[in-house]
Design a protein that fits this description.
Elements: H1 16-21, E1 45-52, E2 55-62, E3 73-79, H2 90-99, E4 103-107, H3 125-140, E5 145-155, H4 157-168, E6 174-178, H5 184-192, H6 194-214, E7 219-220, H7 239-251, E8 260-261, H8 262-268, E9 285-290, H9 298-307, E10 312-317, H10 324-327, H11 331-347
Length: about 375
């Protein structure tokens, strides 16, 4: 077949500053077709528990519909966006991976959702990463998991955490990061500017000084439409994050709370997965990212890819925002499908022939 101009795909990837300059005056955070907004089926998973640092963590296990009770399958441990609980984002991917023959674990990190941990809503990346590695241990301890074919797959900040887990845990045989976060402090500094970012960190320092003096844990909102007199500090003060978290809290995740310890930010802003990308080797690494992402920068996805020294692949999906890769089609279908194809190649496995169970769509009966 002859190659023509219309048959060649062209993706436009620009520095975020340039893309931001062309941002629409009224951005859309929902798909035009309500049928493209995904709602997961809670009946597709079963609740499980596992331990991390002496704490009891809540998980959800997705098994392939065609797998026998004790049939061994490849496994995937998943981790999701900052502050999220297991009912947000991950089920859309987990169901598709399970339909392709993988057993998938999602979980609530310590102090979130149904997991133990004090103080509540306290997010420290190194601790969440330890929880993630314990999730890998849980999968490897199951009789229905092929221990030689276990992957770490993360979305948003969980993508950066998957890179970190792959770097430190060689039981993980493949790593996938979707819409990943690779340098949170660097992202904030680029958007805010050096002086404003320094002032923001100084606010955090001051709040923690007060916390040290009186022993009372300080909380702020996880997200807000922006900074205001009523909300002088938030972990994610942007309309896109606010639209996603408040919508999914109401629809699917009542255990998600719009509050986080101020102490979380001191750790959150220091997380950097670019430095750990080379250490994923010899395991292969797949990075999938949107071409337009005003929350987690495409430039940093490129940096993580460039830093990796083992087998690697980078896939760009033409997007309008960050959260399209959370729970909207066709973006989730594309990212999940590319992940499945790539993992099948790494694990040298054939796809199941049974038809997958359909996912319930928003507005469907």
């Amino acid at each position: 077949m002859a190659v023509t101009a219309s048959s060649v795909s062209v993706l436009r990837v620009r520095p975020t500053a340039a893309a931001a300059a062309d941002a629409p005056a009224e951005p859309r955070y929902l798909p035009e077709d309500p049928g493209d907004l995904l709602r997961a089926d809670p009946a597709r998973s079963i609740p499980v528990r596992f331990r991390s640092a002496g704490l009891d963590l809540a998980g959800a296990l997705f098994r392939p519909p065609t797998a026998g009770k004790d049939e061994r399958t490849p496994g995937i441990a998943m981790c999701g966006p900052f502050s999220s609980v297991k009912e947000q984002t991950l089920p859309h991917y987990a169901q598709r991976f399970a339909d392709a023959g993988y057993t998938v674990l999602t979980f609530d990190p310590r102090s979130f959702g149904e997991s133990e941990g004090q103080p509540r809503q306290h997010h420290v990346p190194s601790e969440v990463i330890d929880d993630y590695a314990c999730g890998v241990s849980y999968l490897l301890g199951r009789d229905d998991i092929d221990a030689e074919r276990v992957a770490a797959v993360g979305v948003c900040l969980g993508g950066g955490y998957a890179v970190r887990v792959g770097a430190m845990d060689k039981r993980v045989r493949a790593v996938v990061s979707i819409a990943g976060g690779y340098s949170t402090g660097g992202t904030f500094q680029q958007f805010m500017g050096v002086d404003a970012f320094g002032g923001y960190v100084a606010q955090i320092n001051a709040a923690l000084t007060d916390e040290y003096r009186d022993g009372e844990v300080r909380y702020i909102p996880v997200t807000a439409p922006g900074i205001s007199a009523e909300v002088p500090m938030a972990a994610m003060p942007n309309a896109e994050a606010y639209s996603y978290y408040t919508r999914t809290q109401a629809a699917d995740a009542p255990r998600w709370l719009n509050r986080i310890t101020v102490g979380s930010l001191q750790h959150f802003l220091m997380f950097n997965a670019v430095a750990h990308a080379p250490l994923v080797a010899p395991a292969p690494l797949l990075i999938i990212h949107g071409t337009t992402d005003m929350v987690l920068l495409p430039e940093l996805a490129q940096q993580a890819y460039d830093a990796a020294v083992g087998p690697k692949e980078l896939i760009w999906i033409e997007t309008d925002n960050h959260i399209q890769l959370y729970d909207q089609n066709p973006y989730v279908d594309i990212a999940a499908g590319r992940t499945i194809e790539w993992l099948d190649r790494q694990f040298r496995r054939d796809r199941p022939t049974a038809a997958p169970a359909p996912e319930r769509l928003e507005g469907a009966a």
